[in-house]
Sequence to fold (572 residues):
Amino acid sequence: MKLDPSKKILIVGLGLLGGSYARALKKKGYTVNAITKDESSVAYALENGLIDHGTTAVDADLIAEADLIVFALYPHVFVEWIKEHGPLIKSGTVLTDVTGVKGCIVYEIQSLLPEGVEFIAAHPMAGREVYGVENSDDSIFDGANYLVVPTEKNTFGAIELCESLGEELGFADVSRLSPERHDEMIAFLSQLTHCIAVSLMCACDDPAIERYTGDSFRDLTRIANINDDMWSELFLSNQKALLEQMDLYRTAFDRLYNCVKSGDREEMRSMMRLSTARRKKFVKKG
Amino acid sequence: MKLDPSKKILIVGLGLLGGSYARALKKKGYTVNAITKDESSVAYALENGLIDHGTTAVDADLIAEADLIVFALYPHVFVEWIKEHGPLIKSGTVLTDVTGVKGCIVYEIQSLLPEGVEFIAAHPMAGREVYGVENSDDSIFDGANYLVVPTEKNTFGAIELCESLGEELGFADVSRLSPERHDEMIAFLSQLTHCIAVSLMCACDDPAIERYTGDSFRDLTRIANINDDMWSELFLSNQKALLEQMDLYRTAFDRLYNCVKSGDREEMRSMMRLSTARRKKFVKKG
Fold:
């Protein structure tokens, strides 16, 4: 079951990601509707041709006519929404999401849904450090990775549909992994990097550093400009996996610290060579 | 005493930075000569119009006719060069450099020079993760910071000359600080960031992460592709300042770790808000 433009898509939550999904899917000829909390987001999306219909009300008709519903909400808002409005979703509808943590919500959402409604979790590894539909931009998907996160409850058809959504959105690579594996990967690749950037910015209160800064510091701290409401929720929703990755990273950092302290240049160089060899594999596609 | 195109400039060491200096200065109409160790670098620079004359020999005439000599060498190579060839430099010549550490070499170089030859240290906060004159690119100076690092031995004229070099090269901001302050700043802004990137790459040996990687991880680890020969020398040349900054960073990281562990969301959010406010000051000029 692949996605094709005969399918009607409903996006719940027109922020940066929801808006970018709408932008990409409208370009491909899909019917895209939206339900979101702010009237101004609906107005912007309609004026700029990102959606066909939009409303701030939870419109039963828009929900009923959707083949695929994409939830682009904070984790706890997503769960609350399903608890309250899940019964409006008709059998045969597929649900997916963009949430950055999986284990703590996927099983709960799946247990809350009406018979015949299937939720297949996904995580688009793309974003910007700005928010809102006004900043949406489907070019953020170019060369990026799209993760599909099925459980044993998911059908082959829904997984295939979700994978084809990733392709239609323009992601360079679509892969599939379990919620537990996802949360471990994301703890390392995304949450830990944000922890590092925040810690670095908090470590020095000297205002003069701005005049002496180079590109390495700017690149490393780009994500230190962080939405504290969202990220504190993501960190605590993935607490165990994040603490494990923080521990592993700290062990490596301490090893390097000890090399500097003891003057062990050879060990330091061997870490740098390992780092260089591994980093060469991460050149962005596309 | 400002730099103007009547001045002859000699670059010692035609690598990425030396080559980028040559490229920028030739565009401004300066006579640029070079002494470097590889014949192929001389050939490339001549073919591409980066220099007027170049040689792999330490040519006494090129040294004697230079008004300003820029050393773009590893710290220990720079010191060795001055010990061996310093006596060839004629009185009235100004020397500068691009070295990433200062305290450990500035005083030594100044003490080794013949009467009337002045060394004024500088650090261009620009670079790329590739090497060699073939990769030189003067656009790396756009919007970047140039640091002039005088000691009490420096004259006003030489400091002004060095500052005008930074302006001629196209840097967005030229500032002045002591060797000790420089080394503290650079330990935090440059060396610590490289330590973080290397540690992060060494912390996980799972080859699958490549398929799940997002932009935040790519940006943060760009500098994990590191020249181990050069950076191990820079780290150990600035050992004390680097260990201090690693300690400060580690304290901030541990504070965040404890927030995640104890579930202290308010403290976590206050660190994120501080981080965001500080990071907003680092938007690149230009």
In short: Residues 164 and 262 of chain A are 53 Å apart (CA to CA). The domain at 182-282 of chain A is CATH 1.10.3660.10 (6-phosphogluconate dehydrogenase C-terminal fold). The longest helix of chain A spans residues 179-202. DSSP finds twelve helices and nine strands in chain A.
